[in-house]
Write a structure and sequence with these properties.
Blueprint (H helix, E strand, L loop, with lengths): L1 H7 L1 H17 L1 E3 L11 E2 L4 H10 L4 H12 L7 H11 L7 H14 L4 H15 L4 H11 L2 H4 L2 E5 L5 E5 H11 L4 E12 L11 E11 L2 E2 L8 E6 L4 E7 L4 E5 L1 E4 L2 E6 L4 E6 L26 H10 L20 H11 L22 H10 L17 H14 L27 H9 L19 H13 L1
Parallel strand pairs: 1-5
Antiparallel strand pairs: 2-3, 3-4, 4-8, 5-6, 6-7, 6-13, 8-12, 9-10, 9-13, 11-12
Helix pairs in contact: 1-5, 2-5, 2-7, 3-6, 4-6, 5-6, 5-7, 6-7, 6-8, 7-8, 8-10, 12-14, 12-16, 14-15
């Protein structure tokens, strides 16, 4: 009986096998034509833990799961993943919406075979598409909807033969598979040695570094969008290397927070483009920045924040007052737009030139308008209501809330540490607005913020540029 059933659905088995095979090959990294011999990389993560987590905690309707398990009970025990998928999908062929069963079939395949999670998803998607009028995007969407947050928070590592490693959150990978309706993906890292910065942008031709083109494609289509969570990149590097990227929209080279450990340069990014592995001076001062080419503040000598402001300024993360000056003005009141722009610059969130829907209170000619429009498009700037961003000076509690929410949205929320302060340590904790409590508690628990004096939090006090700069610097040191 089973042989006859499998014979009826042989075309599905063939589709599953072909697609799963293609998927397994392309779920890797190719160094890219013109830069190296293009040998594919490998997935370096043990996917069994991902599969186990999915199979045990996926959000699947009980009746759906029972129906799929009922079919499983009637099948032989030694079926391959492709045979198992074909048999289950075949038995469900008369159902109105096979997508409802997709996640349950994936869970069964992971529990009963040695297929990894990508092979299972690829096989189930291909089989359901072949047996119905559903698109791959619709089936993938149904599967991803059932994946619990604990699994989406996991990351997978993929490494090229040159040692370039991509640490990719599963949430980023799956959301792009759904968006593109594809089940094969490819990460590429292509080197161009000793390329002048002038070849990447109109910059200083005297500066020489190594350009690395990072790309991510699904179904052969390059993904140009900004990711919802940061991807961590590591490249073989020397101790005096630092990272930057070419911002095509701004036509500038911009520095990225980076560190060198054990012969590798690490940085995080929310987009893929042309990155630069550049040589820096021994004191780790970046030789160029956003605008002007080198921000050397003239009013920070002898101040408690001198070193921090010099580092952040050199990186190009924060401009001087009025942007055209070299005045840091550390005691000047901080504005919401300054805070947002500094966070975006520090975490490599590139301005999106297609973001044209801004908040109604943002002047079109503001130097911060492109930052705010991009943040609104990404959902990391929520505004204060009535489609308003809330331009202007910002107090301490709103600064902390704004900062934490942006970091949480891009997957950079700080973790709690032992021995940190709590709300109970401040006599004026009751002055903190109820809507701000959760975020402030989280930042306190991470040891990143404290009061303005012993036992005094002062949530309604205005904040200053120097304090914000110290906070960003502390986050980058994490």
């Amino acid at each position: 009986m089973l042989t006859k059933k499998l014979g009826m659905f042989l075309p599905i088995i063939l589709v599953v096998s072909m697609i799963a095979s293609l998927f397994a090959v392309n779920a890797s990294i190719d160094a890219g034509p013109g830069f190296s011999d293009g040998a594919p990389g490998i997935i370096a993560t043990d996917l069994s833990q991902v599969a186990k987590a999915f199979a045990t905690v996926a959000d699947i309707d009980e009746d759906i799961m029972e129906a799929v398990e009922g079919i499983l009970d009637e099948l032989d025990d030694d079926l391959t993943a492709g045979e198992l998928i074909a048999a289950i999908v075949g038995a469900l062929a008369d159902e109105d919406d096979l997508a409802d069963y997709a996640a349950a079939i994936v869970a069964v395949v992971l529990a009963e075979t040695d297929a990894n999670i990508f092979e299972a998803i690829a096989g189930v998607t291909a089989a359901i598409v072949a047996a119905s009028d559903l698109t791959a995007g619709e089936v993938l969407g149904a599967i991803v909807e059932a994946i619990p947050a604990s699994v989406l928070a996991m990351s997978i590592d993929m490494v090229t033969k040159e040692g370039v490693k991509f640490e990719v959150p599963l949430s980023v990978l799956f959301e792009n598979l759904v968006l593109q309706g594809g089940i094969d993906f490819l990460f590429t890292a292509a080197y161009a040695d000793e390329v002048s910065y002038a070849q990447a942008a109109a910059g200083d031709a005297g500066k020489v570094g190594t350009v690395v083109n990072l790309n991510f494609s699904v179904g052969g289509k390059k993904i140009g969008s900004i990711f919802s969570k940061a991807v961590t990149i590591s490249l073989p590097a020397g101790k005096n290397n630092s990272a930057a990227y070419f911002d095509a929209a701004a036509g500038k080279i911009k520095a990225l927070p980076s560190k060198v450990e054990n012969g590798f340069l690490y940085f995080k990014t929310l987009h893929f483009s042309q990155f630069i592995l550049m040589e820096v001076d021994a004191d780790d001062v970046v030789p160029f920045a956003d605008e002007p080419a080198l921000v050397a503040f003239t009013d920070i000598a002898g101040e408690w924040y001198e070193d921090i402001a010099a580092y952040i300024g050199a990186k190009g993360f924060i401009p001087g007052i009025g942007r055209a000056t070299e005045l840091f003005a550390g005691t000047t009141a901080l504005t919401t737009e300054e805070l947002l722009a500094t966070i975006m610059n520090a975490y490599g969130i590139a301005i999106d030139p297609t973001a044209d829907d801004n908040f109604v209170d943002v002047p079109e000619d503001s130097i911060y308008a492109p930052y705010i429009a991009t943040a609104k498009k990404l959902g990391i700037a929520r505004g204060v209501g009535d489609d308003k961003f809330g331009m202007g000076e910002i107090n301490r509690e709103r600064m902390f809330v704004f900062l934490y929410r942006v970091l949480d949205d891009i997957g950079e929320a700080p973790e709690a540490v032992e021995g940190s302060l709590g709300l109970e340590d401040f006599v004026d904790a009751d002055d903190i607005s109820e809507w701000a409590l959760e975020e402030i508690e989280a930042l306190l628990a991470a040891g990143l913020i404290n009061g303005v004096d012993v036992g005094v939090f002062a949530p309604q006090m205005g904040s200053q540029r120097a304090f914000m700069t110290k906070l960003i610097y502390s986050l980058l040191e994490e």
